[in-house]
Amino acid sequence: MRKYKSKKFKLNEFIIEKLLLLFAGITILTTIAIIYSLFKESFVFFKEVSIVEFFTSTKWTPTLKPQNFGVLPLLTGTLMIAVGASIISLPLGLGSAIYLSEYAPKKARKIIKPILEILAGIPSIVYGYFALNFITPLLRDILPQTQVFNAASASIAVGIMTLPMVASLCEDAMMAVPDSIRQGAYALGSTRMEVATKVIVPATLSSTAAAFLLAISRAIGETMIVAIAAGQSPILTLNPLESIQTMTGFMANISMGDIQYGTIEYNTVFAVGALLFVITFIMNLIAKVVINKRKEQY
Predict the structure, then answer these.
(1) Are residue 236 and residue 120 in the same domain, yes or no?
(2) 38 is in which domain, residue-wise?
(3) DSSP letter assigned to residue 178
(4) Which residues are CB-neighbours of 25 under 8 A, at least 6 positions away?
(5) pTM for the complete prediction?
(6) 46 Cβ partners below 8 Å, 6+ apart?
(7) Are 38 and 114 contained in the same domain?
């Protein structure tokens, strides 16, 4: 009887192991297929367009005559959104995490935590219309020169959207710090603020940095908010009050248009998508390196 149970247990373990291996293999194959489809069409694009022009030209008009294929306006617009969103989400998210883990009583945590989770669950298209119909009018009341579609309102909305991610990841890391470390700091005469900022935050530095990088990557890859609120003007500008276009906004815009398969206009989507993939991949690699380099072990 024991031998039968042992054989059955080993068989179940074998089946589970192979299923998990299959799931992992499907994930890897899916990633490879995405990379292949992106770079295959991108290679066709760069056979017709110089890579030097792509990265140095300041004009982006792939659907107009004469055609220009300088991705700098899209890249600049994307970075403006990422920087603007980071200015909002990173300090507010970290501050929220510090409050929830070090200051908030249990009753307050039970209220604030679900609210943050609700923010995380709101569809990005809702944030887009919120930016267009609420944030933009406020900005125009303060700064009348603000255009209807602008980078500032889109950045604020993306920052609000990524704030729960930063707050949740940072708070989880802070809550994982052993309470004995806190008690030791208090025993040495530290105040609650000193414990939070000089003990807990440094102890979770790698996790906090990784959360920041993931939030920035999320902001770079955001589509619907920028497509609705930021505009469709691929111009090279650093003024957040003007209409811009991001890489994801361009991809969403041109995909809804009437473009013929296999044309240069069609292949621009894959070239921009490949660049976006490389940027986010590098950001994730940096986050991985930071985690491995300063990994906390308790």
Answers:
(1) yes
(2) 2-48
(3) -
(4) none
(5) 0.85
(6) 54, 271
(7) no
